[in-house]
Design brief:
Elements lengths: L11 E4 L2 E4 L10 H5 L2 E9 L2 E2 L2 H14 L10 H14 L6 E9 L12 E9 L12 E11 L13 H12 L4 E6 L4 E4 L3 E6 L2 E4 L10 H12 L4 E3 L4 H6 L2 E6 L3 E8 L2 E2 L3 H20 L1
Parallel strand pairs: 7-8, 7-14, 11-12
Antiparallel strand pairs: 1-2, 1-6, 3-4, 3-5, 5-6, 8-9, 10-11, 10-13, 13-14, 14-15
Protein backbone atom coordinates (compact mmCIF):
# COMPACT_ATOMS: atom_id res chain seq x y z
CA UNK A 1 0.00 0.00 0.00
CA UNK A 2 1.48 3.30 -1.12
CA UNK A 3 1.56 6.55 0.78
CA UNK A 4 0.22 9.53 -1.12
CA UNK A 5 1.33 13.16 -1.23
CA UNK A 6 3.01 14.33 1.96
CA UNK A 7 1.53 17.32 3.77
CA UNK A 8 3.29 19.82 5.97
CA UNK A 9 2.12 20.78 9.45
CA UNK A 10 -0.08 23.91 9.63
CA UNK A 11 0.72 26.53 12.23
CA UNK A 12 -2.55 28.45 12.00
CA UNK A 13 -6.15 28.03 10.90
CA UNK A 14 -8.72 30.66 9.96
CA UNK A 15 -11.94 30.26 11.95
CA UNK A 16 -14.54 32.85 10.94
CA UNK A 17 -11.79 35.36 10.14
CA UNK A 18 -9.79 34.80 13.33
CA UNK A 19 -6.35 33.19 13.07
CA UNK A 20 -5.81 30.57 15.72
CA UNK A 21 -3.10 28.06 16.46
CA UNK A 22 -3.77 24.80 14.60
CA UNK A 23 -3.38 22.95 17.90
CA UNK A 24 -5.88 25.16 19.77
CA UNK A 25 -9.39 23.76 20.53
CA UNK A 26 -12.04 25.39 18.36
CA UNK A 27 -15.48 23.98 19.20
CA UNK A 28 -17.90 23.25 22.01
CA UNK A 29 -19.20 19.74 22.61
CA UNK A 30 -22.52 20.66 20.96
CA UNK A 31 -20.89 21.64 17.66
CA UNK A 32 -23.20 20.36 14.93
CA UNK A 33 -20.41 19.17 12.65
CA UNK A 34 -19.17 17.00 15.52
CA UNK A 35 -22.59 15.83 16.74
CA UNK A 36 -24.40 15.28 13.44
CA UNK A 37 -21.90 15.67 10.61
CA UNK A 38 -23.86 18.82 9.75
CA UNK A 39 -21.12 20.26 7.55
CA UNK A 40 -19.73 20.46 4.05
CA UNK A 41 -16.16 20.77 2.90
CA UNK A 42 -14.05 21.40 -0.18
CA UNK A 43 -10.46 20.31 -0.74
CA UNK A 44 -8.58 22.69 -3.03
CA UNK A 45 -5.09 22.48 -4.52
CA UNK A 46 -2.80 25.50 -4.54
CA UNK A 47 -0.17 25.60 -7.28
CA UNK A 48 2.18 28.54 -7.73
CA UNK A 49 0.26 30.55 -5.12
CA UNK A 50 -3.04 30.09 -6.97
CA UNK A 51 -6.05 28.10 -5.67
CA UNK A 52 -6.93 25.85 -8.59
CA UNK A 53 -10.47 25.80 -10.00
CA UNK A 54 -11.75 27.70 -6.96
CA UNK A 55 -14.89 28.90 -8.77
CA UNK A 56 -15.95 25.29 -9.43
CA UNK A 57 -15.26 24.29 -5.83
CA UNK A 58 -17.36 27.17 -4.52
CA UNK A 59 -20.16 26.46 -7.00
CA UNK A 60 -20.42 22.92 -5.60
CA UNK A 61 -20.09 24.19 -2.03
CA UNK A 62 -22.87 26.76 -2.43
CA UNK A 63 -25.10 24.19 -4.16
CA UNK A 64 -24.56 21.86 -1.21
CA UNK A 65 -25.36 24.62 1.27
CA UNK A 66 -28.56 25.36 -0.62
CA UNK A 67 -29.49 21.67 -0.59
CA UNK A 68 -28.92 21.49 3.17
CA UNK A 69 -30.86 24.73 3.80
CA UNK A 70 -27.77 26.49 5.18
CA UNK A 71 -27.83 30.29 5.16
CA UNK A 72 -24.62 31.62 3.58
CA UNK A 73 -22.75 34.54 5.06
CA UNK A 74 -23.25 37.64 2.90
CA UNK A 75 -19.45 37.98 2.66
CA UNK A 76 -19.02 34.64 0.92
CA UNK A 77 -17.67 35.03 -2.61
CA UNK A 78 -14.81 33.74 -4.72
CA UNK A 79 -12.77 36.87 -3.97
CA UNK A 80 -13.46 36.56 -0.22
CA UNK A 81 -12.30 32.94 -0.01
CA UNK A 82 -9.34 33.37 -2.37
CA UNK A 83 -8.03 36.23 -0.23
CA UNK A 84 -8.57 34.26 2.99
CA UNK A 85 -6.86 31.15 1.58
CA UNK A 86 -3.80 33.00 0.30
CA UNK A 87 -3.41 35.01 3.50
CA UNK A 88 -3.50 31.82 5.58
CA UNK A 89 -1.06 30.15 3.17
CA UNK A 90 1.34 33.03 3.76
CA UNK A 91 0.99 32.73 7.55
CA UNK A 92 1.70 28.99 7.31
CA UNK A 93 4.76 29.53 5.08
CA UNK A 94 3.23 27.75 2.11
CA UNK A 95 5.51 29.19 -0.53
CA UNK A 96 4.42 27.16 -3.56
CA UNK A 97 2.00 24.23 -3.58
CA UNK A 98 -0.50 23.48 -0.85
CA UNK A 99 -3.65 21.68 0.18
CA UNK A 100 -6.66 23.66 1.38
CA UNK A 101 -9.61 22.33 3.33
CA UNK A 102 -12.55 24.73 3.52
CA UNK A 103 -15.28 23.55 5.91
CA UNK A 104 -18.72 25.09 6.33
CA UNK A 105 -20.80 23.95 9.30
CA UNK A 106 -24.18 24.90 10.70
CA UNK A 107 -23.93 26.84 13.94
CA UNK A 108 -24.64 25.29 17.35
CA UNK A 109 -28.18 24.84 18.58
CA UNK A 110 -30.87 22.18 18.49
CA UNK A 111 -30.68 18.43 18.11
CA UNK A 112 -31.46 16.88 14.73
CA UNK A 113 -33.62 19.91 14.00
CA UNK A 114 -31.34 22.98 14.14
CA UNK A 115 -32.28 26.16 15.98
CA UNK A 116 -31.11 28.22 13.02
CA UNK A 117 -29.40 27.79 9.65
CA UNK A 118 -26.53 30.24 10.03
CA UNK A 119 -23.06 28.91 9.35
CA UNK A 120 -19.42 29.23 10.32
CA UNK A 121 -16.32 28.49 8.26
CA UNK A 122 -12.91 26.99 8.91
CA UNK A 123 -9.96 27.18 6.52
CA UNK A 124 -6.86 24.98 6.84
CA UNK A 125 -3.79 25.21 4.57
CA UNK A 126 -0.86 22.79 4.54
CA UNK A 127 2.19 22.69 2.30
CA UNK A 128 2.70 19.99 -0.34
CA UNK A 129 6.08 18.55 -1.24
CA UNK A 130 5.17 18.06 -4.90
CA UNK A 131 5.08 21.08 -7.20
CA UNK A 132 2.45 20.72 -9.86
CA UNK A 133 0.46 17.58 -10.57
CA UNK A 134 2.68 14.52 -10.76
CA UNK A 135 1.60 11.07 -11.90
CA UNK A 136 2.31 8.28 -9.44
CA UNK A 137 5.38 6.29 -10.52
CA UNK A 138 3.93 3.04 -9.22
CA UNK A 139 0.39 2.17 -10.24
CA UNK A 140 -2.31 1.68 -7.62
CA UNK A 141 -3.84 -1.66 -6.74
CA UNK A 142 -7.60 -1.48 -6.13
CA UNK A 143 -10.51 -3.68 -5.14
CA UNK A 144 -14.25 -3.35 -4.65
CA UNK A 145 -15.70 -2.45 -1.27
CA UNK A 146 -19.17 -3.99 -1.13
CA UNK A 147 -20.03 -4.26 2.58
CA UNK A 148 -21.91 -0.94 2.42
CA UNK A 149 -23.54 0.54 -0.69
CA UNK A 150 -23.31 4.19 -1.76
CA UNK A 151 -26.82 5.70 -1.87
CA UNK A 152 -28.17 7.38 -4.99
CA UNK A 153 -29.64 10.73 -3.97
CA UNK A 154 -28.93 14.47 -4.38
CA UNK A 155 -26.87 14.28 -1.16
CA UNK A 156 -24.50 11.75 -2.77
CA UNK A 157 -22.95 14.33 -5.08
CA UNK A 158 -21.82 16.83 -2.41
CA UNK A 159 -18.77 16.76 -0.12
CA UNK A 160 -20.47 16.15 3.20
CA UNK A 161 -18.91 15.58 6.61
CA UNK A 162 -21.17 12.51 6.78
CA UNK A 163 -18.37 10.24 5.60
CA UNK A 164 -18.98 6.91 7.35
CA UNK A 165 -19.01 4.84 4.15
CA UNK A 166 -15.64 6.27 3.09
CA UNK A 167 -14.18 5.61 6.53
CA UNK A 168 -15.33 1.99 6.41
CA UNK A 169 -13.95 1.56 2.90
CA UNK A 170 -10.68 3.08 4.12
CA UNK A 171 -10.49 0.56 6.95
CA UNK A 172 -11.09 -2.25 4.45
CA UNK A 173 -8.38 -0.82 2.20
CA UNK A 174 -5.85 -0.76 5.02
CA UNK A 175 -6.75 -4.23 6.27
CA UNK A 176 -6.16 -5.72 2.82
CA UNK A 177 -3.20 -3.51 1.81
CA UNK A 178 -4.82 -1.95 -1.25
CA UNK A 179 -4.02 1.56 -2.45
CA UNK A 180 -7.70 2.41 -3.04
CA UNK A 181 -11.13 0.82 -2.90
CA UNK A 182 -14.03 1.29 -5.28
CA UNK A 183 -17.55 1.87 -3.95
CA UNK A 184 -20.73 0.46 -5.47
CA UNK A 185 -24.37 1.51 -5.35
CA UNK A 186 -27.47 -0.63 -4.77
CA UNK A 187 -27.57 -1.60 -8.45
CA UNK A 188 -24.00 -2.88 -8.37
CA UNK A 189 -22.59 -0.01 -10.42
CA UNK A 190 -19.17 1.31 -9.41
CA UNK A 191 -19.63 4.91 -8.32
CA UNK A 192 -16.18 6.15 -7.29
CA UNK A 193 -13.16 5.43 -5.10
CA UNK A 194 -12.76 6.52 -1.46
CA UNK A 195 -11.40 9.97 -2.30
CA UNK A 196 -11.54 10.00 -6.10
CA UNK A 197 -13.72 9.72 -9.16
CA UNK A 198 -13.02 6.86 -11.55
CA UNK A 199 -12.31 6.69 -15.28
CA UNK A 200 -11.90 3.61 -17.47
CA UNK A 201 -10.23 3.73 -20.90
CA UNK A 202 -11.08 1.38 -23.75
CA UNK A 203 -9.76 1.83 -27.30
CA UNK A 204 -8.86 5.45 -26.53
CA UNK A 205 -12.34 6.35 -25.21
CA UNK A 206 -13.00 7.46 -21.62
CA UNK A 207 -15.85 6.13 -19.51
CA UNK A 208 -16.82 7.57 -16.12
CA UNK A 209 -19.68 7.03 -13.70
CA UNK A 210 -22.53 9.55 -14.03
CA UNK A 211 -23.34 11.67 -11.00
CA UNK A 212 -26.81 10.09 -10.98
CA UNK A 213 -25.20 6.76 -10.02
CA UNK A 214 -24.20 8.28 -6.67
CA UNK A 215 -20.66 9.61 -7.13
CA UNK A 216 -19.40 12.94 -5.83
CA UNK A 217 -19.63 15.62 -8.51
CA UNK A 218 -15.86 16.00 -8.60
CA UNK A 219 -14.16 19.21 -9.69
CA UNK A 220 -11.16 17.35 -11.13
CA UNK A 221 -13.56 14.95 -12.83
CA UNK A 222 -15.10 17.94 -14.63
CA UNK A 223 -11.70 19.32 -15.67
CA UNK A 224 -10.46 15.97 -16.98
CA UNK A 225 -13.63 15.59 -19.06
CA UNK A 226 -13.08 19.10 -20.45
CA UNK A 227 -9.40 18.44 -21.19
CA UNK A 228 -10.17 15.12 -22.86
CA UNK A 229 -12.87 16.60 -25.08
CA UNK A 230 -10.64 19.56 -25.98
CA UNK A 231 -8.04 17.02 -27.18
CA UNK A 232 -10.56 15.00 -29.21
CA UNK A 233 -10.83 12.17 -26.72
CA UNK A 234 -14.40 10.93 -26.50
CA UNK A 235 -15.94 10.74 -23.01
CA UNK A 236 -19.06 8.81 -22.04
CA UNK A 237 -20.80 9.05 -18.68
CA UNK A 238 -22.13 5.51 -18.26
CA UNK A 239 -22.70 3.12 -15.38
CA UNK A 240 -19.49 1.19 -14.73
CA UNK A 241 -19.90 -2.47 -13.87
CA UNK A 242 -17.17 -4.92 -12.92
CA UNK A 243 -17.10 -6.15 -16.54
CA UNK A 244 -16.01 -2.66 -17.64
CA UNK A 245 -13.02 -2.81 -15.29
CA UNK A 246 -12.03 -6.23 -16.53
CA UNK A 247 -12.32 -5.15 -20.17
CA UNK A 248 -10.58 -1.77 -19.88
CA UNK A 249 -7.13 -0.96 -21.24
CA UNK A 250 -6.52 1.65 -18.54
CA UNK A 251 -8.04 2.73 -15.25
CA UNK A 252 -7.32 5.97 -13.39
CA UNK A 253 -8.65 8.01 -10.47
CA UNK A 254 -9.01 11.77 -10.13
CA UNK A 255 -9.26 14.27 -7.29
CA UNK A 256 -8.50 17.94 -6.68
CA UNK A 257 -5.21 17.48 -4.81
CA UNK A 258 -3.58 14.60 -6.66
CA UNK A 259 -4.89 15.30 -10.14
CA UNK A 260 -4.63 11.79 -11.60
CA UNK A 261 -3.62 8.46 -10.05
CA UNK A 262 -3.26 5.56 -12.48
CA UNK A 263 -4.25 2.04 -11.52
CA UNK A 264 -2.03 -0.91 -12.38
CA UNK A 265 -4.11 -3.79 -11.00
CA UNK A 266 -7.65 -4.86 -10.19
CA UNK A 267 -7.73 -8.53 -9.20
CA UNK A 268 -5.77 -10.32 -11.95
CA UNK A 269 -6.25 -7.55 -14.50
CA UNK A 270 -3.29 -5.28 -15.36
CA UNK A 271 -3.48 -1.82 -16.91
CA UNK A 272 -1.39 0.63 -18.93
CA UNK A 273 -1.09 4.38 -18.21
CA UNK A 274 -0.64 6.05 -21.61
CA UNK A 275 -3.82 8.11 -21.34
CA UNK A 276 -3.07 9.12 -17.75
CA UNK A 277 0.34 10.44 -18.81
CA UNK A 278 -1.17 12.48 -21.62
CA UNK A 279 -3.97 13.93 -19.51
CA UNK A 280 -1.80 14.95 -16.55
CA UNK A 281 0.54 16.72 -18.97
CA UNK A 282 -2.43 18.64 -20.38
CA UNK A 283 -3.67 19.35 -16.84
CA UNK A 284 -0.36 20.96 -15.89
CA UNK A 285 -0.40 22.99 -19.11
CA UNK A 286 -3.89 24.24 -18.23
CA UNK A 287 -3.01 25.23 -14.66
CA UNK A 288 0.15 26.97 -15.85
CA UNK A 289 -1.87 29.06 -18.30
CA UNK A 290 -4.41 29.94 -15.62
CA UNK A 291 -1.71 30.85 -13.12
CA UNK A 292 -0.11 33.21 -15.61
CA UNK A 293 -3.48 34.91 -16.18
CA UNK A 294 -4.23 35.23 -12.45
Amino acid sequence: MQKDINFGTPQFVNHNGTYLSASEPLFNADNRAFCYGDALFETVRITEHTPQFLALHLKRLFAGMNLLKMQPNTQFSEMFFEHAILKLAQKNNVTSDGRVRLTIYRNDGGYYAPDNNNVSYLIEVTALEEQGYMLNSKGYTVDLYTELKKPQSPLSSIKSANSAIYVMAGIYKNQHSFDECLLVNDKGSITEAISCNIFAVKNGVLYTSPVTDGCVDGVMRKKIIEIAQANRIAVYELSIMQSVLLGADELFLTNAVNGIRWVVAYKQKRYFNNTSKKLIEKLNELTKQQNQQA
